[in-house]
Amino acid sequence: MLSREQIIDTAVELLDAGGEGALTVRAMTERLATGSGAIYYHVGTRDELLDTATETVVTAALATKPGGASVTPEEEIRAVALALFDAIAEHQWLATRLTLQIIRNPIGPVTVGIFERIGRQVGALGVPQAAWFDATATLVHYILGAVSQNARVDGDTSDVEAGVDREEFLGAASRAWQELDPDDYPFMHAIVDQMREHDDREQFLTGIALVLDGITNLR
Amino acid sequence: MLSREQIIDTAVELLDAGGEGALTVRAMTERLATGSGAIYYHVGTRDELLDTATETVVTAALATKPGGASVTPEEEIRAVALALFDAIAEHQWLATRLTLQIIRNPIGPVTVGIFERIGRQVGALGVPQAAWFDATATLVHYILGAVSQNARVDGDTSDVEAGVDREEFLGAASRAWQELDPDDYPFMHAIVDQMREHDDREQFLTGIALVLDGITNLR
DNA sequence: ACCTGAACACCGTTCAAGT
DNA sequence: ACCTGAACACCGTTCAAGT
């Protein structure tokens, strides 16, 4: 018998392999050797399936160990942030789907789960309660913004090739920046070297440290 | 004769009125009283039209006055951030399309335009040059993350009704949060009142101030 | 309760043909 | 150069019918 879980797993596979465009009802029925009605019976609309897949993947990412007793709030926040960073690296379709879910269903399990997880640590950081909501919202907005914008479309290359792709990409980008009119784009010219040598993950951690610095100043 | 500009304007109208799903080639040909080939001739694919529309709207938003001579870097950054905030409030489809464009074309005019505009002010803030790229990336990630996640889907109501909608929405959200298990979601329960009374725009400015605080600490 | 699959209305895109 | 619009392959969704 066809199960809801099977359908969701298959959907994630199709999404990972070919992006949102690859998730068609017909592709699903072929892989699952079933009729289209069966899918609607178990998970509803294509759009609902997309939401469910998002929920499943994000929940799994957040389920990483709650951290030992001796973990600082900063470390815990970094762990959650990196879990989301890695989830989007693995499932690039999440970048837009996560945003869509937060906009359309801000009281759903995805939004609430992330907020609760980050918010507790903001409290543990010693931020006065009156600032909890603002501080947590800022952190969550930053984390989700950064991970979404860092999702790279690089096809299904091996790990070794991915390194090459990355260098090629950075080279192309820095060349494009070099070609900009220096009078119109002085800043881009000034940072072209930093851009070529930067690491997304490191920059993400630097950004978190920076926001955390602003947050702890609220004490 | 049909012009590229006409096509883009019509596309933005359809997108504003009904979201991404409302932008169909057939709806375009009806409004413009033309054949489908004409659209492909002028702007290419539907996807390319979507990118062009995004570019047009973002460029217009960034074109707000460059600021007088006596404007501080902080004020300038706030002005750019609020311009993007308002652009997404007016064109909600931007939330996902902007992310998509940044991912797929990080060297395009949209990404470069935002980066240059914000980056200059980061320099003017006195941040050491070695930290320019990291600081600017953090700020841009935060701004785009926050504005995207604040895009509300509220249909085509008048300004007065929008206020009612907002209260209804906040009420529904706070009620949903109240119903969460307090043992599993202590943080959500603690901030439910702040959430009901907060203002998105104010919270956004608070977030920017917080990130700016972290950035100026780099001096 | 669970599943099939034909049928339907609607897509984006192409391209020979016209002016 | 600019535009038409029929034709094509492909969508998501429904629903009577089966087990």
Automatic annotation (TrEMBL), chains A, B:
Keyword match Endoplasmic reticulum: no
The protein's name: HTH tetR-type domain-containing protein
Domain of life where this protein originates: Bacteria
Record InterPro entries: Homeodomain-like_sf, HTH-type_TetR-like_transc_reg, HTH_TetR, Repressor_TetR_C, Tet_transcr_reg_TetR-rel_C_sf
Lineage start: Bacteria, Bacillati, Actinomycetota, Actinomycetes, Kitasatosporales
Keyword Transcription annotated: yes
Annotated organism of origin: Streptomyces malaysiensis
One of the GO BP terms on file: negative regulation of DNA-templated transcription
PANTHER family associated with the record: HTH-TYPE TRANSCRIPTIONAL REGULATOR RUTR (PTHR30055), TRANSCRIPTIONAL REGULATORY PROTEIN (PTHR30055:SF151)
DNA-binding region: 24-43
Record key words, sorted: DNA-binding, Transcription, Transcription regulation
HTH tetR-type domain location: 1-61
One MF term in the entry's GO annotations: transcription cis-regulatory region binding
